[in-house]
Write a structure and sequence with these properties.
The chain is mainly alpha-helical. The protein has one domain. The chain has four helices and four strands; from the N terminus they run ααββββαα. The radius of gyration is 22 Å and the shape is elongated.
Length: 139
């Protein structure tokens, strides 16, 4: 049987590894979310600025087992009635992104995500690998 020197030190390094990887991943995901929000705000058509201001990134709940951010546009601030007295509403953000029967689409949300998807994934992977290497090296 092989002998392991500094067994206690090795155990500490291995126990700290998941926390290091999680923190590095969270930082990379936060940077991705911030970049995506900025790009979407640059691409969106601005009339009064309400739609642009509704684009936000929200951190997901770790208590529920999620690690990441939700980027969204629209919501209550961009919800409008279909027509006066109809009682039915629609989200203006969806109308801008996908268009309507009378309005051409002016996409801003999905094109910015698709254009950066590979870069965002690579950033998270690099951060995780770096955290693992740094943790294994004991730094």
């Amino acid at each position: 049987m092989a002998k392991v020197r500094n067994r206690e030190r090795l155990a500490k390094v291995l126990q700290a590894l998941p926390a290091r990887v999680k923190e590095a991943t969270k930082a990379a995901l936060a940077q991705n979310a911030d970049e995506l929000v900025l790009l979407q705000k640059r691409l969106v058509v601005v009339d009064k600025g309400v739609l642009r201001d509704s684009i936000t990134a929200t951190e997901l709940s770790e208590e529920k087992g999620y690690l990441g951010y939700q980027v969204q546009a629209g919501g209550p601030t961009t919800t409008r009635p279909v027509r006066e007295g109809a009682g039915v509403t629609y989200d203006y953000a969806l109308a801008v992104e996908f268009g309507t029967e009378k309005m051409a689409a002016e996409p801003f949300f999905y094109p910015s995500y698709r254009a950066n998807k590979k870069r965002f994934k690579s950033r998270v992977t690099r951060a995780m690998r770096k955290a693992i290497k740094d943790g294994a090296a004991g730094t």
